[in-house]
Amino acid sequence: MRIGILGGGQLARMLALAGYPLGFTFRCLDPAEDPCAADLIPHIRGNWDDPEALRTFVDGVDMVTFETENIPLQALDCLESWGVPFHPGREALQVTQDRLLEKTYLRDCGFQTAPFASVSSLDEARHAAASIHYPVILKTRRFGYDGKGQKVARNSTELEAGFNALQGQDLLLEGYVSFEAEGSLIAVRDKKGHIQFYPLIHNEHRKGILYRSEPWIAAGTLERSAREAMKTLMEKMGYVGTMTLEFFSSHGRLIANELAPRVHNSGHWTIDAAVTCQFENHLRAITGLPLGSVASQAKYCMLNVIGQMPPRSEVLKIAAARLHDYHKAPAPGRKLGHITLVSDDQQEIEQGWQDMLAFYQP
Amino acid sequence: MRIGILGGGQLARMLALAGYPLGFTFRCLDPAEDPCAADLIPHIRGNWDDPEALRTFVDGVDMVTFETENIPLQALDCLESWGVPFHPGREALQVTQDRLLEKTYLRDCGFQTAPFASVSSLDEARHAAASIHYPVILKTRRFGYDGKGQKVARNSTELEAGFNALQGQDLLLEGYVSFEAEGSLIAVRDKKGHIQFYPLIHNEHRKGILYRSEPWIAAGTLERSAREAMKTLMEKMGYVGTMTLEFFSSHGRLIANELAPRVHNSGHWTIDAAVTCQFENHLRAITGLPLGSVASQAKYCMLNVIGQMPPRSEVLKIAAARLHDYHKAPAPGRKLGHITLVSDDQQEIEQGWQDMLAFYQP
């Protein structure tokens, strides 16, 4: 079975690494000249909304999936008209491409969210901010990630500046959630409707980019309610594949923030420390295979490598370190790889972390 | 760093799967039209002793390794003349391509071996057999694997038949070792001379092909003496990379049988159950990186898939099963993949084995 992946970045790369042992082959469509997945899967260069490129891409492909939610819906129109199956489905893309739809969907499925309102003028923004209370965040409804397309406003002046910076795009105004911690919940649902949940992850961001993920300690009630709402959501969506919810913990309550209809950076630890990683389970789900266990096999902590790779030999001297180099050109703010520290012994993980900071400060 | 692999079979495939996360890229040279490694690494089609094909293959490659010991030494001549580094070295290929040299080398390094003699005529064979005692095995000195190029003789008549079948080739006559068990020892040595040993493996063959590998129980003395001799051998050879010794256990003693200067089928369990697999450690060794831990993380048992793949969905229903499909065309006697059963609980492995036999009898 050949699986087409829309997108050729590190997620496509890791999908392929997980999928080759299952006997699958792959192909990706990506506008970049040399995306990092092209090291190991054939790459068609083209835009996702270019019917000709899509046509070449799907020729001989049995099904399609994607590594980013920023796939134009026109691409799905083409796939549908040609009878090429794809997972996750259209609704997952529609909802996650639009922050207003997404927040509404989350709320309707039982998640708590920050207060939010759609705004199309500065006046509307001012009224919404007054009712929600400052500080607020102005966000573009579409195509924002890693903190892009967002402006925090603590007062009316900042709101106006933010609105001017983002105007011309559909906007959403949200109440600012003061939170103790950020986390994510990764779930996978197969074609028969079975759902598995990876353990809750605690995430630390720096400059809007995920920096460090590790197990969420003492998650009991929070985790149960999150799983319940996630199940509702995935069933409502008829979702098939791996899906990620990013959330805040605020005064002990879970505030749902964003959905990713795909494998997720905060789940990269599963490659080294879960029985079945998020990538393999995504592929199992979309190809109609039974899901594998999502249990953790050890303690872990994942560090993103951003901007510049640390020396490979230094990383590999650390017994607990597992290196994942995406083979990308260095650039400020670019995710180049990740390192997972894995051990049965939390002390060894802490030590590995300290050892790493000696030669690498991201 | 781009690593060239001579050979494009499943071992090259698994080397690439282990090496991509380290940031390496690959290329293989293989005479087959579509070897299974070509799914994920660029493939140059050509013979290993064809200087033109080799020239194309090494262009832009930083170093070369191999997945088979059947690489003609002329290929190494070319690499040397062009200044392309390769590991393991020439001596490893020379010794393992010739059963007489190999047995002599093993003995000289402190291993016990079956009694053996070089024979070039039927008369010599008869004399050697009389001194070694029947049953004996006639073997071609060169290019035999998986039981090919071997004839067992229980008496003079069978010896003559065997000699006639194999004649024209350089031959070796060996005493037949009556053994309780077969096993292997996989070691890896880095450029600084550090050596790591994977735990001893118990191997079961059927029709001369490896069928099942699992941990060797109660290996104490046997393992210590094997490691000692293996260390002597690797140091004498200046070996860099993963190396495998296949042996018999006969009356509790280890009888060294064959060396493979490469990753080995009996070490495939390391992908799923060792901290660092034999493939990654081979790559770490030959690129001058520090070795990773070879400790087992769980109990395991590996089954080769021969001739025909079992249904993927049935295999993946078994919680302990990890599937490795090499994406090869089915053919009688062909290794198509392997399945590793992994669990902390030996009972779950046994149960997985039983479940598997219900739909798959290799």
The interface involving the most residues is between: A-B, 32 and 32 residues
Mean pLDDT of chain A: 94
The unreliable regions of chain A are none
SSE run of chain A = EHEEHEHHHEEHEEHEEEEEHEEHHEHEEH
Q: Which CATH class of the largest domain in chain A is shown?
A: Alpha Beta
CATH topology of the largest domain in chain A: D-amino Acid Aminotransferase, Chain A, domain 1
Q: How many discrete domains of chain A?
A: 3
Short description:
The structure is a homodimer of 362-residue chains. With 362 residues, the first copy, chain A, is an alpha+beta fold. Chain A contains twelve helices and 18 strands.
Structural features, described:
Two copies of one chain form a homodimer. Chain A is of the alpha+beta class and 362 residues long. Chain A folds into three domains: 85 residues, Rossmann fold, CATH 3.40.50.20; 61 residues, 2-Layer Sandwich (Dna Ligase, domain 1); 177 residues, ATP-grasp fold, B domain (D-amino Acid Aminotransferase, Chain A, domain 1), CATH 3.30.470. Helix content of chain A is 32%, strand content 28%. Chain A contains twelve helices and 18 strands. In chain A, strands 5, 10, 11, 12, 13, 14, 15, 16, 17 and 18 form a ten-stranded mixed β-sheet that branches. The longest helix of chain A has 18 residues. Chain A starts with a strand and ends in a 5-residue tail after the last helix. The mean pLDDT of chain A is 94. Chains A and B meet through α1, α11 and β17 of A and α1, α11 and β17 of B.
